[in-house]
Amino acid sequence: MLKHFQQTLSFVTTLVCIGYGFGDLHINLVIREWLEFHPDRRLEIVNPGVRDVPPFLLHLISQVKITASTTTEYLDKRAGIVRTPKEHLRW
Fold first, then answer.
1. Cα pseudo-dihedral 13, 17, 23, 27, rounded to 10
2. First to last CA, the chain
3. Could you tell me whether strands 42-46 and 14-18 are parallel, antiparallel, or unpaired per DSSP bridges?
4. Do residues 46 and 67 make contact, with C-beta atoms less than 8 angstroms apart?
5. Residues 56-88: pLDDT tens digits?
6. Radius of gyration over alpha carbons of the chain, in Å?
7. What is the C-alpha separation between 45 and 58, in angstroms, rounded?
8. Which of 12, 53, 71, 84 reaches 20 to 30 Å from 35, CA-CA?
9. Binning pLDDT at 50, 70 and 90, where does residue 90 land?
10. What does pTM read for this prediction?
């Protein structure tokens, strides 16, 4: 699975991480090497509680964006979905 992830990642320029806590050293290495390979690659970390770039990516800080929102808020915004106040109460 890791090799497949690594191979597939080489075809994208932006990786959006939702729900990944950067606790797996093997995956972190793949992400870091992927970002280091080309300066146009971007990593977006979506998590309402994250404020800082993971330490292993500090040298690539210009390629990392932190989005402090929930998954639903992030995906709704990307899809152009606007929810009513009543719909927000169901979360």
1. -30
2. 33
3. parallel
4. yes
5. 999 999 999 999 999 999 999 999 999 888 887
6. 15
7. 14
8. 71
9. low
10. 0.88
Model confidence band, residue 91 (pLDDT cutoffs 50, 70, 90): low
Q: 17 forms bridges with which residues in the sheet? A: 45
Sheet strands side by side (includes 42-46): 14-18, 42-46, 64-67
**35: which residues sit within 8 A by CB, 6+ positions away?**
41, 43, 57, 60, 63, 64
- Token output for 62: 């210009």
Domain residue spans of the chain: 2-89
| Residues constituting the chain | 91
Whether the CB-CB separation of 31 and 38 falls below 8 Å is answered with no
**Pairwise CA distance, residues 65 & 49, whole Å:** 14
Cβ atoms of 45 and 66 closer than 8 Å: yes
